[in-house]
Structures are given as C-alpha cells and as structure tokens.
Amino acid sequence: MVHNPIEGSYNWFLVGLSFIIALFAAYTALHLVRRVLVTEGWKQKGWLFSGAVVMGIGIWAMHFIAMLAFRLPSGVTYDLTTVLMSIGVSIAGSFVGFAIASHAGRSRTRLIIGGTFMGLAITGMHYLGMYALTGITISYNPVIFSLSIIIAVLTSITALVFSFRKQIHYWLSGFVMGIAVTGMHYTGMSAAHMSLPMHMLHRAGGVTSQTMDFIEMAVYVAFGTIVLVAVSLLTSMNVDKKLTEQMTLKGSILESVIDSLILFDHKGNIFEFNPAAERVFGYKRGQVIGMTITELLMPEHPRDMRTLNGLLCGGDRSVLGKRLETVLPRADRSEFPAEIIVTRIRNEKRQVFTMYVRDLTERRIVEEALRESEERYRKLIDFSPEPILVHNEDGISFVNDAALRTFGAEQDGLIGRGFLELVHDEQRNAAAEWLEQVRTGLAKVEAIELKMRKLGGELIDVEAKSILVPFGGQALIQTIAWDITDKKRYENTIRQLAYNDMLTGLPNRNWFNLYFPDVLQNAKARAQQAALLFFDLDRFKLINDTMGHQMGDRLLQHFARMLGETVGDSRMIARLSGDEFVVIVPDYDQAQVEMLAVRLLEHVSVPLQVENQAIYITTSIGIAVYPEDGESPETLLKNADTAMYAAKEKGKNQFQFFCWSMNYCQSRRMAIEQALPSALEERTFDLAYQPMFDVLEERIIGVEALARWDHPVLGQIPPGEFIPIAESSGHIVALGEMILHMACVQMKAWQDAELLPIPVAVNLSVLEINHDHFVDRIARTLLHTGLDAKYLVLEITESMAMQQSDSIVGKLRALKELGVSISMDDFGTGYSSLCYLRKFPVDRLKLDRSFVQDLAGAAEDTAIVEAVIAMAGSLKLQVLAEGVETQAQCERLLALGCRQMQGNWRSRPLSAAQFESAYLGGGDGIGRAVACVGSGEAAAGMG
Q1: Rounded to 10 degrees, what is the CA torsion of 373, 378, 383, 388?
Q2: Cα–Cα distance between 929 and 402 in angstroms, integer?
Q3: Fold for domain 683-942?
Q4: Superfamily for domain range 500-662
Q5: pLDDT, tens digit, 9 for 90 and up, residues 111-127
Q6: What is the pLDDT of residues 63-105, one digit of tens each?
Q7: Which CATH class is domain 385-489?
C-alpha cells in the first residue's frame, strides 16, 4: 500500500497553551504531593492519589492540545479505548513515581526511581496517545525516540529532587516538571514519521488541513483541565493555611508552657524540647533533638535517673503519671533538684512520652528561708514602729514596744490579758464577731475601728487590722492597732464643715443627699410611708435686695430656728440652698403632716422684730409622699418642688400635696413604671403577629411578634411608651423573656397543629443582650418550648451594631451556632457602615419604614433603597422592607429588587386568633389572603 508522508505545521497558540497547561498541572501536582510529608494514614494516600490524578490529567490535556496544535489531515480520529488507556497509564505511573519519591527518608535512590517512573508515565502517555491515532501510519526515529525518554526521565528526576530535597519554591519544581512533559512530547513528535494511505488521501479529496475548529476544542479541554487543577490547588492551599495555623498554635503552646516539656518516643529518642527546657537545662533545642532521654538526664550520673530511665525504656509503666523528685544535670555539668512527671500519649503509629520537668531550686531556697522566718518574724515585730499584739482566746502572748506605748503599759504589762478586755463595753460584741471572722480565715477581713481603753482608763480611738499567722507552732492572731484619736477628731471637724450649713447651723444639701436615701430605705423595709416637705420663702429676693444681705441672713437664721422649734428634731431639717429648706417626716401620717404644715405657716406669719421694725414673711410648702409620689430621693425632691410651685401659683403662704395632674407626663410614666412589676407577674401582656411576605412567590415567610398591653386603668399602652420605661426601670429583661416565651409557645403550637411552618421574629433590647446569661436564656426557652431554633429570628437595632461591642458580637455568634437567625431592624437610620455588617452575623436587613414611605418622593431616597438592596445582595443578605402601606410602594420595591415586605397594606398586626383565621384557617387561606392584598381586602379584613 502506498503512503503519502504527512508534513504538518504547528498552531503556536495551541503550542503555548499546551505548555501552560503542563506547567500549571505539574506545579499543582507537586503542591498536592508535598502534603504527603505532613500527613499519615488515609489522608496521606488521598493526597498522593490527588496529585497523581492531577498530574495524569495534566499530561493528557497537554498531549491532546499539543496534538491539536499539529495540523493533521481530515479523517484522522482517536481510538477512545487507547486514549483512556493512556490516561490510566499516566495516572498510575505518576502515582507510583510520587509514592516512591515521597516515602519516608526520601533518599537519592528513591528520588531517581520515582523520577524514572514519572518519566516513563509521561512517555507512556505520549506514545499510547500517538498510537490512539487511527487512519495514519507512524514510525519513529530510534535515536530521537530514546532521547525523548531520556529527557522525560532526567527532568522528572530533577523536578522531584527540587521538590522533595531542596528548599526551593514549588514554581521552579513545577517549571522543571512542565519542561519534562512538553519537552518529551515535542521531542517525541520530532521522532515520529507519519504518513497517510493514498486511498485515504483520495477520499479526503486531497485536503490536508483539518476541517473542524480544533482551537475551540483545545480551549474547552484547557478550560476543563484548568478548573480541575485550580480546584485542587485551592484545596491544597487551604490545607496549607490550616496546617500553618496548627503549627503556629502548637509552637505557641509549647513556648507558653511554664514547665520544661520534653517529648520522646518509645525508643527514648527526643523530638521536642520547649524554650522552658532550654532555660532549665542550658541546651539549645537543636543540640537535644535526636539525643536519647538517657543521654540527656544521666550522662555521668548513675543515681535515681538510671532506675527511672530503665523503667521507661524497658516498658515498665509504673512510674507514669507520678510525681518524682530527683537531681538532674545541666549542660555545664552542674546539678539541680527537680520534680518530673512522665505521661504517655498514643498516636496512630507509636507511643510518645511527655516529660514535665520543674526546677525545684527556688522552692528549696524558699523552704530554707521559711526555716529561718520565725526568728526573723520576731525581730521584725520587736522593732516595728506599728503597735502589734499577738493573741488568741487564751490572751495576749506577745506585744512590741510600740503597743506598750500606745496602751500605757510597762514591760509585759499586757501579756496574759484578753484582747477584748481592752475594748469598750459597747463595742465588745462587734469586736468578738470580727475576731471570729479573722480566726476562721474564710475571707479577707477589713479593718475595724474600735474604742479601746488604756491601762490607765483613758479611752482612745483605734483602727485595728488582724491576720492569722503561725507563731510558736500554733495559729495566732496578729493585730496592728493604730491610735487614730487625733485623726477622728480632725474628721469630725471636717464632717461638721462638710455636712452643716455655716449660716443656720442646720444640715446642708450634702447631708440631705447622704441621709435621705437611708430614710427611704428604712421606710421600704418597714413597708411604711415617708414625706418630704419643701419650703421656699415668699418674696425673699425682694427682702434681700431692699434690706440687704445681712438682713436676709438674719431672716434665714430666724426661719431655721422656727423650723427647729416647730418640728422638734433639727436632724430632720436641712437647708438646700438660698431660701430653700426641707423637712423629712420618716413616719408619714397625712393628718399629722397637714397639722405640721399649718403650724409652720402660723409660726412663720408672726412678724420678726428687727431694729424695732416688724418684718412679715410667708412661705410656700410642697409635700411629696413616698412611695406614691416617687421611690427615689431625686424624684421625691423634684415632685415636692413641683408641689411648692403649685402652692405659689395658688397665692403663696399655703401648702400643697403633690398630685400627678401637676405633671401628666411624669404621672403617667410613674404609673406605668409602678404597674410593670405586677403586669409581669400576672402576665397581662398579649402578643400581636404581623406577617412578612415574599410578594413574588405569594407566600408568608415569617411573622413578627409584637407586645401589646391593655391596662385596666391606663387603657391601651403602646409599646413605644412602656418599652423605654421597662428599660429605664430594669424590667426589660423579664419583659423580653416573657415575650420570647409566649412567641415560641404560640409558634410551636401552630407547628404541632401542622399549620404553616414559618419562623417568628422577636425584637431585642440592648439591655437584654448585655445580660450575663442572655444566650443561656434563649437556649433554655427553646428547650422548654420545644421550638426548633431555625424557627426563631431575633431582631436587633442598628444602634446596637454601632456600639461595636465584642461581647454583643460574641453572643450573637453563639446564637448563630444554636441555629437562631439574626435580623437587623430599622436599617439605614444609624449611619450604616459595612464594617457593622461584616462584623455582625446578620441574615436579614429590615429596611426602615422612613425610606419606604418616601419612595415616591425624592430620588435620593430611592437611590438609598436601591444601594441597600444591591449591597445586601453582594453580601448575600436578605432584605425586607418595613412599613409598606400602598400598592405603589410595593410595585416600586419589586422594581428595585426587594421582594420581601411587611406593612399594613399586606396585613396589620393580628391577634393569634385573627392570624389563624386569616392565614392558617384552610388549605387556600394563605393564597387567598395574598391574592387579595393588592385590592386592600386583606388589610381591611384584619382591622
């Protein structure tokens, strides 16, 4: 048969593409196989197989594209069986080559054998691929044929040496391996002489060019190969990152361990030596690695360590986990006392021992010092300038010279006396309790101030501080007793200046602020009432301005004396400032307070004779009662002041009880605050449910639980009014827990009834999140109600995110781990920042109603909404628009890409019964409600 030789040319684009594929595949395969060096077991085989597959597919893809680069006549095809066989040969050869080269030890011989297998895999793939061509005849130049094999083998060996034996970057190893693949291929192609039978040439009509677009086919093959290789490379890089983190963590742990840590295998070979061990033994880590534990611990020291080392190396585990004290050598041949503990760690292949070594040198020094401490302790006490007494229940056993001087005693004049004998009778019981606390030693006992008596009978003020100490073989009490008599005298003088008004001699505002809270606390403890009378002199400024400040001062002094005479107890009176005075009535009785106010008005009305001149003054009195008019000192003072101004407005010179009609807002707030505890206890709150819709799919995607409070006296109290009061009064945590529990119970009941399985959203206050047991409370509620966590959505406000609290972020992430979803409410109103969304584990953004309402208005609002929706989409967050009220708003939101909505146009908040009737009443209830919302029928029916 006559053959016509084929003389083709190359498409250089495909030639370059084939070389790139070879480089990329070789680099990735070597990157994957290097994982074998740091893994064991099935993971090691998995990485080995992955590298072989990537290498084999890469060799085949390079060969296939390179063959397409050579322009063959039309009619030439591939035998699929042979092609598959060539791929299998390349994968198998790569696997064997990598396995040999990466084996433990990685000797030069193994690298040469592994490289040889790799080279044979490359040439086997090439020539089997050539053999797969049908319709042509191929013969080879034996010299060039042999040269191609040599090129593949030598470059493969070089690449493996670079990869496994040298600290060279993967790119160079991959580059060399890529040269092995492409160099072998094009050398092999040079060795090939291809010819086409004449009958096929006539059949092809003499056309010698391919008729199909091989460039497109090559691109497809290259793209698929690159995708496979890229996925493998990214996987390996991710493992690299995790491995680096693990190694860093391991190194940090070893470096941070305080005790010396030595790891050695079952043969006694040391393979880890931490920095603490370097400091203790005086060796560098590199000097010790590879030594045996015997060489380290007993080079020339045949004592206890010989026995210990023999037990360990001989397989006897009787010493494992036990604390042993011995003497060990350092690098400089010096010795140190040590405590060692040996434990055993099992891994997949061998037993590993961990030895903890603690240097006892400092402890021995301390023990030696303790043996000398008693004598030193006695000397320190003898020469201390502080008065020190050592005593127990039997009496005082030791005093220093300073104590003798303090208590006026001669030498040994206090020995044998009981400490309590020196304490004043009125404080003896308190001192006894204090000493008992010191004697038990259960907690730190603060200093105490006592009245004590010198031996001569003189009383002194003493500040005593005691500790329990060992002395003479027994536990005694050591007391330092400072004489603070002069200090107390100075403090009393300062207190008199700080808490008394210099003009009138009455207590001042500082005293009132300190004393009045105690009065209210006592009244609360006794379940009694207390009253505060607030006085203001009428026209005092006029008297001051017309008659002078000296006359004004005399008038204030006269008024203060009159208050003291009328009230009878000056300790219940205070001058706050100027002409403002208060009287505290600890035991309130309305009739008595009214009589007191009348007497005060009568006494004030008596003219004051000054320099033969009668001065008439009057006063206005405001009265506030605890707890009806307030529970805090500030509130009562404010309300008494309000009542005083009401008395002035009615004509002055009279008294007026505070009533809430004087300040409706304050009255209502206080009423709500007082009603909250009982409402929480009686659970008089209800929940309304407002559905959230996916408009495009015409389905409900969730409901928001909203608290409602119908008070029997105050009527309907909106959440915007009682929620802030609950926050300020500290009831928000209990209220939030109740609302969460009610919502979860209701949703679980609907799910148990096989109704619509949708999540329920509950709003959170920042005070709830800041509560210490917030996450535990959520988890406990889900457990008790039986509601799956995926059906609970917790809504936070954007203001919480702006706080950027690591504690809040940590708690929200803990909730995400439970399976709870997080929604950010009122988004767009808090100077939103992408860093909040990146930091917070948020699933959904609820677009604030203010943006929705203005969609038909300014273009800026539309731009903001569009930007929020686009941003959420890029962050893979859901967006739900709140406050949708009209059809136009709905259509505009849909046009902007927001399909989740909530608002009165769809449905107002409904009671549980209304919600069941409207949406859970039948199989088509939801569809019917959603279908008619466009005409407003559903909204009208939910009223």
Answers
A1: 120
A2: 92
A3: TIM Barrel (3.20.20)
A4: Reverse transcriptase/Diguanylate cyclase domain (3.30.70.270)
A5: 777 777 777 777 777 77
A6: 667 666 666 655 556 667 777 777 777 777 777 766 776 665 4
A7: alpha beta
